[in-house]
UniProtKB/TrEMBL annotation:
<keyword id="KW-1003">Cell membrane</keyword>
<feature type="domain" description="Glycosyltransferase 2-like">
    <location>
        <begin position="5"/>
        <end position="174"/>
    </location>
</feature>
<dbReference type="InterPro" id="IPR043149">
    <property type="entry name" value="TagF_N"/>
</dbReference>
<dbReference type="GO" id="GO:0005886">
    <property type="term" value="C:plasma membrane"/>
</dbReference>
<keyword id="KW-0777">Teichoic acid biosynthesis</keyword>
<dbReference type="GO" id="GO:0019350">
    <property type="term" value="P:teichoic acid biosynthetic process"/>
</dbReference>
<protein>
    <submittedName>
        <fullName>CDP-glycerol--glycerophosphate glycerophosphotransferase</fullName>
    </submittedName>
</protein>
<dbReference type="Pfam" id="PF04464">
    <property type="entry name" value="Glyphos_transf"/>
</dbReference>
<dbReference type="InterPro" id="IPR043148">
    <property type="entry name" value="TagF_C"/>
</dbReference>
<dbReference type="InterPro" id="IPR051612">
    <property type="entry name" value="Teichoic_Acid_Biosynth"/>
</dbReference>
<keyword id="KW-0472">Membrane</keyword>
<keyword id="KW-0808">Transferase</keyword>
<dbReference type="InterPro" id="IPR007554">
    <property type="entry name" value="Glycerophosphate_synth"/>
</dbReference>
<dbReference type="InterPro" id="IPR029044">
    <property type="entry name" value="Nucleotide-diphossugar_trans"/>
</dbReference>
<dbReference type="Pfam" id="PF00535">
    <property type="entry name" value="Glycos_transf_2"/>
</dbReference>
<dbReference type="InterPro" id="IPR001173">
    <property type="entry name" value="Glyco_trans_2-like"/>
</dbReference>
<comment type="similarity">
    <text>Belongs to the CDP-glycerol glycerophosphotransferase family.</text>
</comment>
Length: 736
């Protein structure tokens, strides 16, 4: 028999599900199965589950035709489980490395009905908060087992399904199932403990309980939080049916119920102000209904006062005391902030510099009406006219001619703006004016921190690549690559987004976790790649002629990415030796990352006629179209170029160092878009032997394109314009 069956329900967890499944399947203990249940998730969760099931026989995919909710989805997984123990792990949480070794050993030695394990709350800012395990069990409970009446303090551990493993036969004999609705853990976790004859505790952190910034029910206001009451009613109805077997536990269970109700009520992110009085009244009703005949252990201090106010139904007093407590806490925070401030409070008069005056002008413009016809475009920190914003701008001119598009560019990039394109120079009064009054703000990076998005404005974040390296909040785990990034500031900028463009399902999954906020995802393909799809052979011939490239020459584009952790680093690459390996008909175009545009001083190859530095060329799509082969490393260029279905070579001389220092979302050397060379000598050999076009390389490219390029049909920009500028509904998803 399999030792542990993991049941992993999945609903809107596409950004986290891979980490969850990897944390299970990567454990040293392999006597497991994973039953992953796609609860008709509207995102790519089901596709991710199928992907894992296809490559690991321990994973079983269950896809539901309608959304049933977390509790019923767990039941469906439980019905398919064959393991001796069942572990219900949520799809956005993950296991600690190697924890399963100790868990499995404890299960095999002690054979408990229930094994409780420790966890930490892992927050968006990469900090962790310990659970109450140390307070509940100040001394290690050891490997022995016990009944709940012997150690009722075990009920003070968090009442979730994922911090306990339950013997499957015990659960079947008990006939216990998850109830539908929110707070479904309550009517499962407490009865399981009360009925168990052998409870074990493993005081080792096994679960990382993700504290999501957006999307969790604990951060969702609404009347569904009233569903906590029927869940607790089920607990007491079960106790009534069990009779004297659990009567001694009733006072402790009652105390937990009131504690839980007050916790939900006290969370301002759950109960809206207009619902608080009704919620309190229901607490009082349940207090009167379920109060044990002999009373219960009332907490000391402030918590005890809350219990007494509930017992007497004194909502106004309860509300007033809560308001006073919150005001006192706010005053303390303000006092701490005031003590930290250094220097004069009034800074406006001391900063009447040109920038200060322009910011004042910007604030004044914010008070003027938004221009309903104005759209502002920018790319790469105002480096010019390019990328996804340029493609969207061009389609907006065609499809929404009533929208006036204005570009923001640096003063030294004005010459790069095509004729007929209106622009403003960054830092000028016109720049501040259009930012304050534009209806649409379109960028492939973030606008500066001072920009305030007004309620009438729409912020469209287009991004500028499919991520290989980790991005956003995920960089917190890789401090070398992150440098001095201000993650709190990053989230303030992300909160301005209304729309986020995604090139493929994989990007959508990664943006969900890297940039958690409430924007709408437009999974439509990349607008900048439309041209790669629609370019005619005549356009390609014209471009090659403009670059001075003969039709019969083999043109290779070399485009390495930037290494944030190694400023100025360039992979070992000798252009002279490379063109010699290409043969007489070979030409090399070299393009450095745009981060290097201020310090670009390439060494001049001896054979300059066959090697050209094209780093200054504004439209990278031109370079893709004229190139027969792309050589890159970890750059998003591989995803764009793959749209052309031409050979790609990954040159990865520092893969291990890059992966460890910068962090990556997947192993591009294991799932490449073509041939892979880890040394320069290997790279030369690939071209000498024409390995770039081998059957293996072609098959790898086909697989890569199927995963990342299916949305690039030449209409991505049109889809964005129709939805964002014209207000038309997006194309319907085929998912339920």
């Amino acid at each position: 028999m399999t030792l542990i069956s993991f049941v992993v329900p999945a609903f809107r967890v596409q950004g986290y599900l891979r980490e969850c499944l990897d944390s299970i399947l990567g454990q040293p203990e392999t006597d497991i199965e994973v039953i992953a249940v796609d609860d008709c998730s509207p995102d790519a969760s089901g596709d991710i589950i199928d992907e894992y099931a296809a490559r690991d026989q321990r994973v079983r995919s269950v896809r539901l035709s309608e959304n049933v909710g977390l509790g019923p989805a767990r039941n469906i997984g439980l019905d398919r489980a064959v393991g001796e123990y069942v572990w219900f792990l949520d799809g956005d949480d993950w296991l600690a490395p190697e924890c399963l070794t100790e868990v499995a050993e404890r299960l095999r030695v002690t054979r408990p009905d229930v094994l409780l394990v420790d966890h930490v709350r892992t927050h968006w800012n990469d900090t962790a908060t310990r659970s109450a395990m140390a307070e509940v069990f100040p001394e290690s409970p050891g490997p022995g087992t016990f009944r709940l009446r012997e150690r009722p303090q075990a009920m003070h551990l968090l009442h979730t399904a994922w911090n306990r493993l339950v013997r499957r036969e015990f659960l079947a004999d008990l006939g216990l199932r998850f109830a539908p609705g929110w707070y479904e853990d309550v009517s499962f976790s407490y009865p399981v403990l009360m009925a168990a004859h052998r409870i074990g505790v493993l005081d080792r952190v096994c679960v990382n309980y993700r504290q999501r910034r957006a999307g969790a029910i604990t951060r969702t206001r609404g009347d569904r939080h009233f569903e906590v009451f029927p869940q607790w009613h089920r607990v007491f109805h079960l106790m009534d049916s069990w009779g004297s077997a659990t009567e001694a536990l009733r006072p402790a269970v009652f105390e937990r119920m009131i504690w839980h109700y007050l916790t939900v009520l006290g969370n301002g992110q759950r109960i809206a102000p207009e619902l608080r009085e009704a919620f309190f009244a229901q607490i009082t009703a349940d207090y009167e209904r379920w109060l044990p005949a002999g009373g219960y252990p009332v907490p000391d201090g402030v918590e005890g006062i809350k219990h007494k106010l509930v017992a007497s139904g004194r909502w106004r007093t309860f509300s007033a005391l809560r308001a006073a407590s919150r005001a006192r806490d706010a005053a303390r925070r303000q006092a701490r902030t005031a003590r930290r401030k250094v220097g004069p409070v009034a800074r406006r008069g001391a900063r009447l510099t040109r920038d200060g005056l322009l910011r004042e002008y910007y604030r004044a413009e914010l008070r003027r009406p938004v221009d309903p016809t104005l759209a502002v475009y920018a790319a790469y920190w105002y480096r010019g006219y390019s990328c996804n914003p340029a493609a969207i701008y061009e389609d907006a001119r065609r499809l929404a001619p009533g929208v006036r598009g204005v570009w923001v560019v640096r003063r030294d990039r004005v010459d790069s703006v095509p004729a007929g394109v209106e622009y403003v120079v960054a830092g000028t009064p016109a720049y501040y004016r259009v930012l304050a009054r534009a209806r649409w703000l379109v960028n492939n990076v973030n606008f500066p921190d001072f920009v305030r998005k007004r309620p009438e404005q729409v912020h469209l974040q287009t991004h500028h690549g499919t991520p290989v390296k980790v991005m956003g909040l995920d960089q917190q785990r890789y401090p070398i690559g992150a440098g001095r990034m201000d993650f709190a500031g990053l989230l303030r900028r992300v909160d301005r987004w209304d729309y986020s463009v995604s090139a493929n399902s994989f990007s959508t999954q990664m943006w969900d976790r890297a940039y958690p906020a409430t924007y709408t995802t437009l999974e439509v393909g990349y607008p900048r790649n439309d041209r790669l799809v629609t370019a005619s052979p005549d356009e390609v011939r014209r471009l090659r002629a403009e670059f001075g490239l003969d039709p019969d020459e083999q043109v290779v584009l070399y485009a390495p990415t930037h290494r944030e952790h190694l400023p100025g680093y360039r992979p070992p690459f000798d252009p002279d030796r490379f063109v010699q390996a290409l043969g007489e008909s070979g030409r090399l175009l070299m393009r450095s990352h745009y981060f290097h545009d201020r310090d670009r001083r390439p060494g001049r190859p001896r054979d300059w006629e066959r090697v050209r530095d094209v780093s200054g060329h504004q439209r990278v799509e031109d370079l893709y179209l004229v190139a027969d082969v792309l050589v890159t490393d970890y750059s998003s260029a591989m995803f764009d170029y793959a749209v052309l279905d031409r050979p790609i070579v990954l040159y990865t001389p520092d893969w291990e160092a890059y992966r460890l220092a910068r962090g990556v979302y997947f192993d591009v050397t294991a799932e490449p878009p073509g041939a892979v060379a880890s040394t320069f000598a290997d790279l030369l050999d690939l071209f000498r032997a024409d390995g770039v076009r081998s059957d293996a390389a072609t098959k790898a490219r086909e697989h890569f394109r199927a995963r990342f390029c299916t949305l690039d049909d030449g209409r991505a920009a049109e889809r964005v314009v129709r939805q964002v500028f014209l207000g038309e509904p997006g194309e319907r998803s085929t998912r339920c």
